């Protein structure tokens, strides 16, 4: 195991993340899981900082590389470029003295056989980069990269994409859902939170969740405003049987349970189901938990409601997954679109005559939302889309599209810190 000083540990991890995303095409969570296997000495704080710095790099990559290219030819090795990317990011984030930024860049270069021969160059150029940032010669703008931007520009105007990029540069807010609605005011005051128009609470900055009152006591859970809206669209569901397909880690399941529904949670990932079970235990909630791929699931039971929170591109959750734009393979879309349409088809066979299908995705792409619903309705003339009533839930009217679906964008509630992109639609059978 590599022995690293405290000051190098996080920076080294950051380089591992950059290399993993850019070269191996792994997500940050996959990389961090591997880190735990070989390297046990990382603390929660190290991981959080490494993730924060690398997310800054992913979100500002174009500007950061321009900063580096002022001093170097474009075709430097990835490992060398990543060290400079770290230097630029650290200079901007401005939490370490200049000498520490430069010294650690040099030390990091000496650890890796690919970069150890250029430590002199790294020293000289890092000094210039830091100086340039200090002189404010190079303001950085957050930008979406590559294929994802191209994809989005076919759907949204430049100004909307610009606002989404601005949101990316703001720290992600932490929203919570309280278990008992009538305790909202109490938790608002206890946690010094503010209430969003939908009733979700938004916490102030830099709160460490597990130390906050009510978390371990199971009084509330973390859930972004966007993902907390779909279940609210169902109205009174007390006593109803709900099948929550794609349930883990259980944010929506907990909402369903606290609204009094009898919930069956199904998910294909054992690991994610473990997290779901931990969440339910902490919240003192009960559900029927099933580990199964939806294609293998068999039941004769007919449910009142089926919630499909389908696997998707996650393009709505950019701020949480800044690595995503750099990993976004258009190829993966075909598989996602397939499982989304198949889940709608399967849900039909498990629903009661007067049942409801609630379909949602945390995607910005109509192909994973609006178009899935149109296709379903075309193939199933016995079904209709129920129009969501914005007013009754205190939603802004522009959040509901012409067909009655919920279409949320990251730049909505901009002044309050934005939200994730999301889509939801309610399907019911014709009378
Ligand atoms: C968007 S997440 C669900 C989030 C969850 N509904 C919540 O509110 O916390 C999608 C989930 O689908 C699961 N999944 C993906 N493919 C699946 C499949 N073929 N069968 C069952 N579950 C699957 C993943 O394991 C993942 O937990």
Topology:
Layout: H1 6-22, H2 28-38, H3 44-59, H4 61-69, H5 78-93, H6 98-111, H7 119-134, H8 146-153, H9 158-168, E1 174-178, H10 184-190, E2 194-195, E3 201-203, E4 220-222, H11 225-232, E5 241-245, H12 251-258, E6 262-267, H13 270-282, E7 288-291, E8 303-309, H14 324-327, H15 330-349, E9 351-361, H16 370-379, E10 383-386, E11 406-408, E12 422-429
Parallel strand pairs: 5-6, 5-8, 6-7, 8-9
Antiparallel strand pairs: 1-3, 1-4, 2-3, 9-12, 10-12, 11-12
Helix pairs in contact: 1-2, 1-3, 1-5, 3-5, 4-5, 5-6, 5-7, 6-7, 11-12
The structure holds S-adenosylmethionine.
Summarize the structure.
The protein is of the alpha/beta class. The protein has helices spanning 6-22, 28-38, 44-59, 61-69, 78-93, 98-111, 119-134, 146-153, 158-168, 184-190, 225-232, 251-258, 270-282, 324-327, 330-349, 370-379, and strands spanning 174-178, 194-195, 201-203, 220-222, 241-245, 262-267, 288-291, 303-309, 351-361, 383-386, 406-408, 422-429. Strands 5, 6, 7, 8, 9, 10, 11 and 12 form an eight-stranded mixed β-sheet that branches. Strands 2-3-1-4 form a four-stranded antiparallel β-sheet, with helices on one face.
List keywords for this structure.
8-stranded mixed beta sheet; alpha/beta; 431 residues; 16 helices; 2 domains; single chain; 4-stranded antiparallel beta sheet; elongated; N-utilizing Substance Protein B Homolog, Chain A; Rossmann fold; binds S-adenosylmethionine
